[in-house]
Structure formats: structure tokens, C-alpha cells
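Here is one chain, start to finish.
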Amino acid sequence: MKLTFLGGAKTVTGSCYWMQANGKNILIDCGMFQGHDQEEDLNFEPFPFDVSSIDYLLLTHAHIDHSGRIPKLCKEGFKGKIICTKATADLCAIMLPDCGYIQESEVEWKNRKRQRAGKPLIEPLYTYQDALDCIKFFNPVSYHQEVRLQGNITIRFSDAGHILGSSILEIWVNEKNSETKIVFSGDLGNQDIPLLKDPETIESADYLIIESTYGNRIHKEKENKVRKLLNIIEETIMQGGNVVIPSFAVGRTQEIIYEIHKYRELYKDDMDFLSHVPVYVDSPLAISATEVFRKNLDCYDEEARAYVENGDNPLDFPNLAFTRTPDESRQLNEKPEPMIIISASGMCEAGRIKHHLKHNLWRSNSTILFVGYQAPGTLGRRILDGAEKVKIFGEEISINARIESIEGYSGHADQQGLLNWVSSIKNKPKKIFIVHGEPESQYAFAKILKKQLKVDIIIPDRGDNYELTPYSITVQKSLEHLKENFIRLQLLAQLDVLSEEIYFLTKQLNQEVLNGKEDEEIKVIQSKIEEVQNSILQINQMLKGSL
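Its structure:
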């Protein structure tokens, strides 16, 4: 059996793995690279295999960084089966067309600019219709159902507790009268995520591929996250500001709604206050996803199911409203009364959230509250990391709003949660591949795993290739062009961020500011700028030398 890492290795986005066994070609996930423009260019790369040769695509869950290139795959000739849980198939049926619509809208906007500049027009990665056309390839199965594929391969999905329908994928491959078991964790959920069950444990694995999004830290506020949420909302509303929550349309949005509903008795005074505050879910996708949640009650934990069985709707309350049209969305920013706005995208890279940020980031009485992971290079990450200004729709926006984050609402297990899950495997893997995380997160998690479990760890690069048997692992020739492209695009992304930081620095360092500094402070600033200048000169010399 051969396993090739096509994405989701030293990156937090674009999960995709290519497995070849017994003459069968199998993809595990086919995700979209998300983040900076340069990283997103990777989505347009040709697939490094004959698309028509892929027999199966096994999908761990519906998030776009795991499913987002499926329409591209189908558009280019895939004719096999896409196997996943029912809830994942239901979510993909709304998320992928939505993603196609976004692709078309963004390309239309870019092409208007390109046409004015006399540049050639570009095509979207795929269209809304392309995404609709790929839904016919989905073959939903139940959790724990053993599915036999051609080529002496058996698979099973278990609940990963990350989003509705998310899965841990177990694969058994029988080759030459020997069986190898490989396990993909998918994205593992946090303990006690609202609505969802906790991640299930597995018995054994020869090889484990595990995510590491929060592999270097422990979630804070796990116990008092609701109290913190309520405090932030009340303090902001009392000041006359808005609480803007950039939220993933699938998962976090429904969980926040559920939390506000769930604690209405425990925090009665707070909920009485909140009952007079309008809460808007401003995302058509989130509205559709909420309907999918209501139709997949079997994925709920016992507590949430009990609400439903008692005739209560855990995804609704009287002052909750859904805005469907662009006009309804725009009108939110014209309303004078304080409100809570939950809007996609969760990393602030696209969609209606950018309009709400444009209207609220400069307001000192408003709060931007992050409840999910922010990938490097995204607008959300820059705001969370303390940027003083950002550009939105070409306009420079000062950040005066209160910026908060509640990691306890993350859909990803933290370091301890990941460690506990691996520790629960009775028959430990021979090797563990750590993927889907920032490098510092991967290395920190590798260190603690090796120390506590005495297991061999591999942190693969994109394009790395391995031969796996029940007894050994052999490094094969890598797909070097994938690795090289990724490194080059990362460098260009860093340059874009640096360019924006220098732009804001030149705006900030004016004569008036410098007049207020002591001579010693001026000398330190000057020294730091000279260091940067010298580094840039050295890079220029390197580039000239290579031409």
C-alpha cells in the first residue's frame, strides 16, 4: 500500500491523501487550500494523478478544507464513488454549491478589474452548477457500518465529534495474505461541544494520521466559556456597541445558538437581559446548515436529543432572526440599536462578515468575538494577532473595537484532548503521521507524543510518499513539484503580509509621532529599520545574482 500526502501535511488547510492498494486508487478528502491569495492558488494546480483512475473518495467531513475541491475533481473526470456519512453528504449538498457561487462571484469581481487593466480574464475553480453536478457521486453510509470496497479493502466511519457527520476513518487493506490497518483521525472534536457527541475511540491502528491544529496548546475557558460569552455580550451591548461573531456557517454558528438557548434557566438574569437583544444569523449557508442539523438528530448528544423529544427546538429562541438576502444583510449596519451578528466566513476571508467588520472594527464600543481557529495569512488571524489597521475592500480601517477570543468554542481538540484520544487506542500504532497544523503545533505535539507514548513520529511534507506494510514503512520518491510550489507560494504570501505591514508603518511614523519620542527611542527605531533595509538589500542582491 502506498500513501502520498497531497495536502494537509505542513499546512492547516487543503486536506488530501492518495492511497494506492491492490490496484485501486483511493483519495481520503479532497480539500481546498484556504488562507492567503497565494496559498489559494494551489487549488488551481492539476491533480498529480489521472482523475479518471480514482475509484473511491472517502470523505471525513464536510468542511471546505476537506471537501472543497470535489467539484473540480468531478469536473475533470472523476467517475467513482464518494463515501461519507449521511450528515456529511447533506452538508456537502449545500456547502459545495455555495462555494461554487463564491468562486464565480470572486472571479467576476476580479475580471472587472483585470478587464480595466487590459489583463486576460480568468476562470473560476468551478461553478455553482459544477458543484451541483458532483452531488450524484455521493454514497452516504451509517456510522460503524463496515463497507467492503473492491481490492480487499474494508472501511468504517466513527464519530469524530468535530461537526455534524464528522468522522474518524478506519481502513483495513489485505495484501498478499497480510492485513494493514490505517486510521485517519479527520478533525477531532473538542470534549463537550454543544449538540455533538464526544469523539469515539478506536481499538487499534498500524498507522495513524492525526491532525494537530491545537497540538501546542490547551484551550482556555473550557469551564467558564458561557460565562465569558455572556460577559462580553452584556458589556458591549451596555456600551451601545455590536457584538460581531465571525463564525463558520456549519458548526460554530449552530453551537453558539444552542449555548444561548441551553443556559436560559441557569443564567436567568443574563438571559432576561439578552431576550431584549436582537441576534442575527447573517449567512444563507448557515440558515441552510441549521436545517440540516434539524434533520440529523441521530448525530446529537443525549442532552440535545432530550430537548427535541420534549418538543423544544434547541436551535431557536424568540429574538433570533435569520437574514437571507443581501439587502437584509446591509440593513443590519444601518440599524441604530445594539445587536449580536453571527456571520460567515469564520476566518473573515469572504462573505458578509467583511461588511460587518468594515462597519464595526473602527467603533470602540463594538466587539469582534472569535470562536474558531484563524489560519495564518487570513484577515481574522491579522486582527486577532493585534493589527492596528487592515484593508477591507481596498479601504483602510482602524481597529478600535474590542477584540476577544473564546477557544473553548473551538471545534478542534486541544493538545490534551489529542493526547488522550491517541492514548485510548489499545493497540498502539507503529508510526504516527502528524498533519493539518502549523509547524510549531506539529513539532510540539510530536514531542509530547514521543515522550509519553514512546511512538515513532513522522511529520510529512506535501508531496511525501510512503510504502506501508504491516511490518515496515519505506520512504518512496516524493512528488517534488508539489513541495516546491507550496514553499514558493508561502514565500509570496509572507511578502504580501510584509508589504501591508510596511504600508501601515509608513502611515504611522509621521513627523508628529516622531516629535513625541525621546532621542534614544528614535535611535532604536532607526536601528531596527536599518536591519530590515539591509535584509531587503541582501535579498535583492541574491535575486540579481540568480538572474
